[in-house]
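Figure 6 in text form: structure in, sequence out.
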């Protein structure tokens, strides 16, 4: 039973990884419990041979964690299925064949500006008779379920309508956090996700130029991102490295991978400054000072070193620091807007 359920969720993730290739922007509309580490609990009502399977995404986990519990009383049943209230008890479980799945539900007050849900469930709750487990949790069913989830996300049929701006922002940051943890999402896939959501994830800018080509003599370089910023600010050149690539050694010095990333941007700068064609027309903003930003690794363990890197030739950020800086930026905007309108206790990104 445990292996069957674990493999089911794993197959859904693998299928969605394949389907999302080159369409990473649609990941934001997928349910919270996919492409994530989950706390999976199998609740068994023995007398009725009935199962309630709960999968809740847990940011603290690196892999799925599974446990099995016995549900013997109606009190235990109601406690297990919170926040849902079941219309049956342990003595009268549904006998119809099939599987009922409840996923990512919420209720929001429509008359509140910038409203967050007043009732929220993030995860999956599955109600299923014991004789249907082998059918509904088979690898084939997992693939079919993944296909259904993906097509709903790709065609804007999966996310609740009328979400507030803060909820939409939250979905973007949640999806970003999920993909940087998955080994199948390397620089190219993360690049596409950031490119699609550049206005929300990258430092403030007027225009973003992803995968921009630079030329010098017969050579060509491709800059991951070039940002045109406000007139008083220098342009910014951004190099993305793999989230699994380490930025610092144990002694606190930069790794070879980090130094290589810095050298990559230095080459872009050389091309820009030695070939006037790279700064013509709409790219005249590349004349003058240029900030350099390397994004690699995960975590905030070396936060002080990363903050101090702004005094060096390149700013060094992990993907987690990129998300933190972006969240702080949007929270400040939301707080200021609410202050301007006289809205108390504004909702912000956690």
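Output sequence:
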């Amino acid at each position: 039973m445990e292996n069957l359920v674990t493999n089911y969720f794993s197959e859904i993730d693998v299928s969605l990884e394949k389907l999302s290739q080159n369409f990473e922007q649609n990941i934001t509309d997928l349910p919270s419990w996919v492409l994530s580490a989950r706390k999976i609990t199998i609740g068994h009502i023995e007398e009725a041979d009935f199962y309630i399977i709960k999968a809740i995404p847990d940011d603290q986990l690196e892999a799925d964690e599974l446990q099995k519990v016995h549900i013997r009383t109606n009190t235990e049943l109601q406690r297990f299925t919170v926040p849902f209230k079941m219309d049956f008890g342990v003595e009268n479980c549904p006998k119809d064949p099939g599987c009922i799945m409840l996923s990512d539900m919420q209720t929001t007050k429509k008359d509140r500006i910038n409203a967050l849900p007043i009732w929220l469930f993030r995860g999956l709750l599955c109600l299923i008779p014991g004789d249907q487990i082998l059918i509904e949790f088979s690898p084939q069913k997992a693939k079919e379920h993944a296909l259904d989830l993906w097509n709903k996300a790709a065609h804007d049929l999966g996310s609740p309508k009328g979400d507030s701006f803060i909820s939409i922002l939250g979905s973007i940051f949640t999806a970003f956090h999920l993909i940087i943890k998955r080994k199948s999402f390397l620089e190219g896939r993360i690049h596409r996700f950031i490119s699609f959501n550049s206005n929300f994830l990258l430092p403030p800018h007027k225009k973003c130029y992803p995968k921009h080509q630079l030329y010098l003599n017969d050579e060509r370089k491709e800059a991951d991102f070039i940002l045109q910023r406000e007139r008083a600010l220098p342009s910014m050149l951004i190099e993305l490295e793999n989230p699994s690539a380490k930025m610092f050694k144990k002694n606190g010095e930069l790794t070879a991978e980090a130094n290589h990333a810095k050298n990559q941007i230095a080459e872009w700068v050389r091309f820009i400054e030695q070939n006037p064609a790279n700064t013509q027309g709409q790219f005249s903003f590349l004349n003058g000072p240029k900030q350099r930003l390397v994004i690699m690794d995960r975590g905030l363990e070396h936060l002080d070193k990363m903050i101090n890197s702004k005094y060096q030739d390149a700013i060094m950020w992990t993907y987690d620091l990129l998300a933190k800086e972006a969240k702080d930026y949007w929270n400040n905007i939301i707080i200021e807007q609410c202050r301007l309108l006289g809205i108390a206790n504004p909702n912000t990104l956690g």
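Caption detail: The mean pLDDT is 91.
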